[in-house]
Amino acid sequence: MKYWRIIVCSFLILMLIFPLVACSNQSQTIRVAEVTRSIFYAPQYVALEKGYFEEEGLEVELTTTWGGDKTMTTLLSDGADVALVGSETSIYVYSQEANDPVINFGQLTQTDGTFLVAREADEDFQWEEMKGQTLLGQRKGGMPQMVGEYVLKQNGVDPHQDMELIQNIDFQNIANAYASGTGDYVQLFEPTASLFEQEGKGFIVASFGEESGHVPYTAYMSKESYLEENEESIVKFTRALYKAQQWVQDHSAKETAEVIQPYFEDTELELIETVVDRYKQQGSYAENPLLDEEEWNNLKTIMDEASELPADVPYGELVNFEIANEIIEE
Description:
- The chain is an alpha/beta fold and 330 residues long.
- It folds into 2 domains: 199 residues, D-Maltodextrin-Binding Protein, domain 2, CATH 3.40.190.10; 99 residues, Periplasmic binding protein-like II (D-Maltodextrin-Binding Protein, domain 2), CATH 3.40.190.10.
- 47% of the residues lie in helices and 16% in strands.
- It contains 16 helices and 10 strands.
- The protein has a 5-stranded mixed β-sheet, sandwiched between helices.
- α6 links the parallel β6 and β7.
- α11 packs across α16.
- The longest helix has 24 residues.
């Protein structure tokens, strides 16, 4: 009888312990909304494909929301836990006196990702050549447009006085409009810029990323309330991101292209490699998740030059740098 009591007691103890163990092994889901699907975000896809999030006990559900406004709306309406979007959007939200501001906690790209494409190859291109010409630019108020105007001004060209600037064409139609004959120059993202070169439709003559310097072009952010309630998970998320950033820095463009190809099934591997190499060469991929104060101030300068800075937000107000610092120092 005593023997059976021991067995029953042991069984009951195991029944109590098992759910606790099972719960401890369950991964937490983090819903991420990315502003677009882009080779520009290669470290993110490396983190997913190499299982770095899973190693941290996280399950990341990635959704592409196609546009800064839509991405931020998704985050603010609790359709996502984390957004990958330009840091300028957090300033726009802050200026509306949001009760739950959006906090930047991890940087993914640190330069602009667009290139200036011309009708003809021009190895000795000078920015002043654009005077009197027509530029097919990006949407007003977005980072590509603001960086574009900033770079032009830095090179002695007033985009609103010295040339014709077209900004009323939807993002998805800009490349087609240029291919159809609109504009002398166009501001394009990859892989479209390199694809245009391959097809002879245009030629990259300058990089806005190289000209504008470091800026928090795309960063991970969440609402302040979510960050406070889920800080441990955000630390794990940032740690996985840092592993991927280091991996990209330590491996060739070809190796990176091979890893992220599943996210770009309609793009040839050789073209992905070309784009990754170009972004690596100009230092577009952030080497770590830290968004530093100099980059934040550069962002505000660019926004101010474009008359799009609604508020002079201090660095520490919308940037959580402690998490990234903690990860880097580990």
